[in-house]
Amino acid sequence: MAVPGRAPILLTCPQGLAPFLADEARALGFPAEALEAGVLTQGGPADCMTFNLHLRTAHRVLYEVWRGRAADAEALYAAALGLPWESWFAPGAAFTVSSSVRNETVRDTRFPNLRLKDAIADRFREATGARPDSGRERDAASVFLHWRGEAATIYLDTSGEPLARRGYRLEPHKAPMQETLAAACLLALEYDPELPLVNPMCGSGTLAAEAALMATRTAPGLLREAFAFLHLQGFDEEAWRAMRTAARRSMRPAPAPIVATDIDPRAVAATLANADRAGMSEYIAVTACDFRATPLPLAPSDTGGLVVMNPEYGQRLGGDDKLAALYPAMGDWLKQRCQGWRAGIFTGNPELAKRIGLRPSRRIPFWNAKIECRLLVFDLYAGSRERSCAS
Length: 391
Hints:
Blueprint: E1 7-12, H1 18-27, E2 33-34, E3 38-43, H2 45-54, E4 60-69, H3 73-81, H4 85-88, E5 95-102, H5 110-128, E6 141-148, E7 151-157, H6 179-188, E8 197-199, H7 206-215, H8 237-249, E9 258-262, H9 265-277, E10 284-288, E11 306-309, H10 321-337, E12 342-347, H11 350-354, E13 362-368, E14 371-379
Parallel strand pairs: 5-6, 8-9, 8-11, 9-10, 11-12
Antiparallel strand pairs: 1-3, 1-4, 2-3, 4-7, 6-7, 12-14, 13-14
Helix pairs in contact: 2-8, 3-5, 6-7
């Protein structure tokens, strides 16, 4: 890509995911500073491709091209007009602009996007005699503006469509967990792909699909074709092809069972369809049953495995007898049938969480949209247990 060499790269993520995203970046060999909703690192254009291909908890890979002061939208326009956009965008590429803005002169947050878009188009007209088209997020170069007070940063968004949209979850079912959040929960639970994973009340199967991607060492970026960096000048198609080939060669069959169950046949159908689109259907055993009838596979040396549950939790208890009864039933099932296993329950309702009847070893904070949630971790005493949760 004909853009500057090494530069700051901001990896964005939802609140609560930054520690896990920082660990991912370090595992790829990069320095990483965790922020509130992202990770700051350094790298070049090829590194942006690596991040887009391999990161499981990132939403966007933002490559910094300008940082400075802008008192208002006209100052922002002037700064952007001086940047060599014509040397960064591929010939004929459309582009899109998005932003995160908190500036007292801005009443309509769409206005900075419009002025930045005008500056880019005017720069192109001056340099080439032609104005580029505005594009769609999935099929265009992408620019991102971060503006707080007078401090502004302009990035080339090398992802375009958020990386959470892997492309496999077209059957969402009810209130699905986002793919990046599911991946972060599995990382927080220290999921070991060599041991079984069981996902009762699986909903649309996102947790099971993300576990299968981890277990098979499948880079999440292999599931999609559209990235904004494809529309940048000097995109190294050969290097990108080699990265994808190397990622495919590192894949393997899942070494341990992954089980997903739900009492709702529509959820089972959604899980099956999504697993198939992810290329993971052969590794996920999906069954329609009450969570208490979920089979627990045998683990090597009878060491147990991981149970992960994302039950309904609503906004508040509100006298919902069904949910009020569900949580103690989950606790009873874990105590009676899942001894020797680790369990994680994701919930946004602390009052319901108290009804589980087990003391968590950890309470890990996450946010699901605007709801503050907790991933409750339970290390269950390894006594005698039955080999199946069938009752």
